[in-house]
Each structure stands twice: as C-alpha cells, then as structure tokens.
Amino acid sequence: MITLNAYAKINLSLDVVGRLANGYHEVRMIMQTVGIHDTLTFEKTEGEIVLSSDAGELPLGEDNLIYKAARLVKETYGISGGVKVHLEKRIPVAAGMAGGSTDAAATIKAMNLLYDLRLSEEDLCGLGVKLGADVPYCIMGGTALSEGIGEVLTKLAPMPECALLVAKPDINVSTKEVYQALDSQSVPWHPDVDGMRQAIEEGRLEGIYSRLGNVLETVTVAKHPIVSEIKQEMLGNGALGSLMSGSGPSVFGIFDDEEKARAAGESIEKKGLAKQVFVTGPQSYFG
Ligand code: ATP
After folding, report:
1. Mean pLDDT to the nearest integer, 277-287
2. What is the pLDDT of residues 29-53, one digit of tens each?
3. Same domain for 150 and 167?
4. Which of 5, 49, 112, 168 would suit a FRET pair with 263, their CA atoms being 20 to 30 Å apart?
5. Domain that holds residue 198
C-alpha cells in the first residue's frame, strides 16, 4: 500500500498571452504549491480500478481524474493489474486550486511505484498532460513558471517564507465560462510575470506581493463581487497582497505573520463571506 499527499496550488500570477487554433489558451503563470492537501492511498488489484472517497459530491466512476489517470497508465504500459484508491478530500472542489489535477498527478506517481515502471519525471509529465494542462505542474510541484498551455515548466527558487490565507466562497465558477468571457473582450492589461520571476529568484517577498496579478480576476469579480469583498477583507486585516487563484473563486492573501492570517480568516468567516478557510504556507518540497 502507498499513501501520497496531493497538494493544491495557487497562482501568484496568471496571464493569458494568446489563443491557439484548437481553442486552448496560451498562458504565462507563476504557480506555487501550498500546504493544503488531499491524501490518497493506493493498493494493487487483480485488474479493476476502484475508487472510494470521504467527499460526497465527487463522481467516483470513470469521470474522476483519479480513475482516468490510473486507466491511462494501465493502458499505456499494458499492465494487467489495477488499483484500489481511497481519497480523503481536503482541497476545495472546483476552486481554482487544481484539486482534480493534483489527484491525477499523485495517481500517476503511485502507479509508477506500485508497478515498478521506473518512469522519469519527464515520462510522468508526458502522461499527465494528456489528462489536463495543470497535471505536469502538479507532478513537479514547488514554485514554477508555467507556459504554453501550462505544460512548459521552468522550476524557480522556493517562495520566501510567509503565511498564506486561502478562502473559498460558497459559489460555483465554471473555468470554461471564465475563459470564454475573457475571449469576448481584449485582455486589458498584463501582470508583470517576469518581474515576479526575478523577485522570486532574488528571494524578495515584497517584489512578489506587489506584483500579484490574474487577468481572469476581473471576469470572475464582475459576476461574483464576493471575490472582491474577500480580497478587501484580507487587505483590511493585514494582508500584504491578495489575489484570486486560477479562474476562482478561491482567494488567497499573503501575510508576514500566521496570527494575522488567522485573525483575517476569522473575520471572513464571521462575516459569512466564506466557509472554507485555511491558514497555510508555501510548500516547496512534497511527496
Ligand atoms: P483548476 O484549478 O485546475 O481549474 P479546480 O480546482 O477549479 O481546477 P477541480 O477541483 O479540479 O477544479 O474540479 C473540477 C471538476 O472536476 C469538479 O467539478 C469535479 O466534478 C471534477 N473532478 C473529477 N475528478 C476529481 C477529483 N479527483 N477531485 C476534484 N474534482 C474532480
């Protein structure tokens, strides 16, 4: 039996720089793994792929990314055995935190170990991109620049130490609709991805929180003002910077102190802005 933690990500910067003929968006993003994680346990079976979970709302059949990941590895390498997976879900679902992608990444890694496939990280990422643009990043983890559709990855220095507050309001955002809305307007401005990359390499937190930017934020905020209210609540309670992650609706704040982050989180909960609130930090090493 193998147990793996599958970590969530936030986007410190998210830019859309083009659109490919196949409809995919060309992005430039700075990704950061955070301490919020699911836990998955894997056991070999004779052949079938079986999934169980403590999360009521998730599909546990062929639609689940864990199932798809296990089947992909099984078919690609002609493995007759299968896998039984139990998922403890902690990452908010459909939140802009790559919850499904990170579970898929963990499953690919687990199949590699369970069946002694001895695949390189590059091989694992090659499988991952077939399941989703964020899966290769989730396999690699840490701090990274992500380009192309998300599969061209450059490892960066670890994010400087800080406290992170993550809050997910109780609303649903469709990633597809957010990108479609962005297509119908021109991207009004671009975040300073390269400046942030340099600040990360120099280990300067100030250079990071002063450059937080996500071009999807205006689209989601226009439809869901609560995202902006949460940001304001974080900034009014000592956050050095605050931003929506991915297509939302999760919002994170960067704090220099865990106590401040906790107090801001309590204020957000008390005002009924979000029920799912986490105090965590950047995760530079994981497994
Ligand atoms: P991203 O940041 O990559 O856009 P997300 O955090 O917005 O991802 P997910 O939590 O990955 O979104 O879930 C999106 C959808 O994928 C959900 O509606 C869910 O039904 C489906 N899904 C399939 N497998 C999983 C899984 N293992 N965990 C979470 N969601 C899954």
Report:
1. 82
2. 999 999 999 999 999 999 999 999 9
3. no
4. 5
5. 163-286
Query: Measured in angstroms, how far is the CA atom of residue 192 from the centroid of ligand 1?
Result: 28
DSSP per-residue letters across 78-101: T---EEEEEEE--SPTTSSS-HHH
Pocket probe for ligand 1: among 9, 29, 32, 65, the residue whose CB has the most ligand atoms within 8 Å is 65
In the three-class reduction of DSSP (H, G, I as helix; E, B as strand; rest coil), residue 247 is classed as: coil
Q: Which of 110, 136, 155 is the last residue of a domain?
A: 155
| pLDDT tens digits for range 251-278 | 999 999 999 999 999 999 999 999 999 9
Q: Among residues 29, 31, 33, 34, which one has the least CA distance to residue 194?
A: 29
- Residue 287: predicted pLDDT: 42
Question: Same domain, yes or no, for 12 and 143?
Answer: yes
Using CA atoms, how far apart are residues 148 and 129, in angstroms rounded to an integer? Answer: 12
Residue to mutate, 58, 66, 67, 89, ligand 1, most ligand atoms under 8 Å from C-beta: 58
The catalytic site residues sit at: 9, 134
